[in-house]
Structures are given as C-alpha cells and as structure tokens.
Amino acid sequence: MNLLKAVLAAEVYPALGCTEPIACAYAAAVAAEQLGRPVERLAIRVDPGTYKNGASVVVPNSGGARGNRIAAALGAQVARSADRLELLANVTPGMRSKAQTLIDSYAFEYGVLEGQHGLRIEVAVGAGPSEARCVLSEGHAHIERIEKDGQTVFRAPSDANHRSGLSYRHELRHLDLAALVELAGAIDDEDREYLRRGIRMNLALSERGLRLKGSAYQLAAMVRHGLLLEDLFHRAKRTVAAAVDARMNGEPLPAMTSGGSGNQGIIASLTPYRVGNERQVDEERILRSIALAHLINAYVKCFVGELAVICGCAMSAGIAAAAAIVYQREPGDVRRMGLAINTVVGDLGGMICDGAKPGCAMKAVTSVDAALRAGFMALEGFGLGSNDGVVGRTPEDTVRNLGRITLEGMLAVDPTVLDILKHKAAPGRS
C-alpha cells in the first residue's frame, strides 16, 4: 500500500462548505437519487459531533441559512451524488425555495444519535409509498448502506480490511515521525499536481475572504492602526483567517481538506505555503512539507478521532503545520520536528471544539501563531520536553497522550457543548 496516496485519496479532497453539513447534503442526495422522484418527506439523524459542527455554520448557496437541516434539504433537492462533497454547487433558487418549504413542514425530522461515537449520518426520504435510505459512517463520503423500499441496494464490505480503503489508518497509527518524513519525501508528479491544486483552491478562498469584514479584515485593521507588524507571522495568519472566514460564512468556493476538514486543510497547506514562499524555499520542498502536514494531521486523528472534542485546527493541523515549517529548512532533522510538535501540544492542548462557525477563524489564527512560534523555536533547538505536563518523551508519545486526554479525560465536554447548542436552538430563545 502507498500510504501517502491512501491518505491523500481518503482525507485530502475538495469540499464546498463545512464538511459535516455537506456530508448531510451528500447522504440526502444519495437517498433522493435512489428514490427517483421529488422528495416529500425527509428524516435525518446525525452523531453528536456532526450535530455540533453543523449547528452554526453557513451553508453555501443556501441564501445565508445555517446548519445541517438546510444542507440535507438542499441535497435532497439536488439529488445528484456524482459531485460528492461539491454537490451544492448545483443548487438553484427554485431548489432553495423547495428545501425551505420542506423544512418548514411536518414532513421534516432532525435528531441526534445520542451516544454515537464517530461520524454517522442516517437519512431517509420518501414520496408516496416509496422510501429510500442512505447511511454514511467513518468518513464524510463513505457510504455504509443504501436501501430502497426496505431492500438493500448497496452495503459496504464489513471486513475492516476492505472498508473504503480505510485500512491505511491501522498502518498509519503504528508509524513514527521519521517514517512520515520519509513518506513525504517520496511524492511523485501526480502528488505534486494534487498538492498544487490544493494550494490554488485554498488561496482562492483566502482571496474571497479578504473581502469580508471578518477576522482577517480585523487583523489588517490592527496593522493599519499600528497595533501589529506587517510581517511573516501576520501575513500567514491573515491568509489562513481569510480562507476560514470565507468558508465558515458560506462562500461558494471549495476548500481542499486535510483529515476531512476544510479548515484543517487550509492551515495544513497555506501555513507552510506562505512561510516557504516568503522565505524563498524551493517549490519541491514546500510541496513535500505540505505532504508531511497532511500525513501528520491524519496520524494525529488516528488517536484523537475524526470528530474530536478538541479543536482540530489548533491541535492536529497546528501540529502538522509546525513540523512542516521545520521540514522546509531541515528536512532530515526529525528531532527538531518533534520539538515543534511537543511545543504546540504543550501550548494549545485541550482547546475544545464547539462546532464549526465563523469564530473558527479566530482559533485558526491562534493555531497558525502557535505553529509558527513552535516551528521557528524548534529550528533554534528549543521545544517543550517531557517535564512539561502531558508532553511525552517522544512526539509519538505526546500524540498518544493527547488521544488519551481527548477520548478518556474529556468525555463530558461534547455532551455539555451539545446541550448548550440545543438549548440555544430551542424555540423562543434568542
């Protein structure tokens, strides 16, 4: 198995809008496509992480509407699954109107799969006596099952070694940082062009976001007012923040994801790109550093989970970007890359994820700042060591410790966040 290509194929892909609502749209589109006629009723249930991540984010081409409900309703109107997580590019004004009518009717149901760990989206659609169902699990575009009128039309292989190519995760979690560095150094022409495509895609989002009066705009204003310097740190943070601003506000441009997350893809690609570009690093090394960032982001998720209680932008993507910065100057110095990883975890470990929303741009700024500091400090030989809290003897130990904190130590966080979001969404509350 070519592990780098497996990661790029399964976790690095274009997505139009936040990946959890768009996954809801995709599941609804698959079900509606199978139904084969206009949808009259729709029921969707999602895992707690998907509920959380879809609660506050603007959905592209929705007219400014937010959340998984409108995403699923739009997906059911599009009823075209071939475009996968870019399917909402096909939305028309008529589809928007029909989707909102469906949501406002008694024929639309939305609920949470309480106690579900990991991504799972179940959508059932119907028209007259006919019904169709689609279930996604384990990945934002990984179909577990499709049914039509009670009959199974498709079922993914149950053998763990064959499920949607996800077996690479078992191999990935047993690698060390040195092995990931070696994989990143072996990119071929196909990988290079795909990584370039991701840079172009995320830079386009950043350019769009600079027009919005969001976090990136405020950073630029602070420079104008003499409160921040116009330096590499500022430009890297502004570039990333602008792309996240655009994405979280529903701008109709795709992001190239990392670990299945657009915001993490933005951090993992644009932070190394901006640093390398400004410091005149040759393109080959920049591309290899971005490949390493994607690999490390995927590696961290093997331990903390796909929809983690901690902020993936701050932790997995921040860790990845910090190591990539070191790689650009010292591609063979695994020890210093480990120092950078340890420092980011010691700095930001425990930052919670309270769902996808415009405020994610603020967390992205924090992540990029921490990654830059950790990366450049590591190049000077400085980094947090095993005497610092949860930092381990090795970067691999540190990541495993982070996984324990996430999966064992913070079990009550997601239910509490979920309860807060449900309370805010209750009728009659502002």
What does this structure look like?
- The protein is an alpha+beta fold and 430 residues long.
- The chain has two domains: 15-165, 60s Ribosomal Protein L30, Chain: A, CATH 3.30.1330; 173-419, 2-methylcitrate dehydratase PrpD (Orthogonal Bundle).
- The protein contains 17 helices and eight strands.
- The protein has helices spanning 3-11, 19-35, 48-54, 68-78, 93-104, 168-172, 177-184, 189-209, 215-224, 232-248, 262-278, 283-304, 313-329, 334-348, 360-379, 395-409, 413-425; strands at residues 14-15, 41-46, 108-112, 120-127, 130-137, 143-148, 151-155, 255-256.
- The strands form two sheets. It has a six-stranded mixed β-sheet with strand order 3-2-4-5-6-7. It has a two-stranded antiparallel ribbon with strand order 1-8.
- β6 (143-148) and β7 form a beta hairpin.
- α3 (48-54) crosses α17 (413-425), α8 packs across α11 (262-278) and α11 runs parallel beside α13 (313-329).
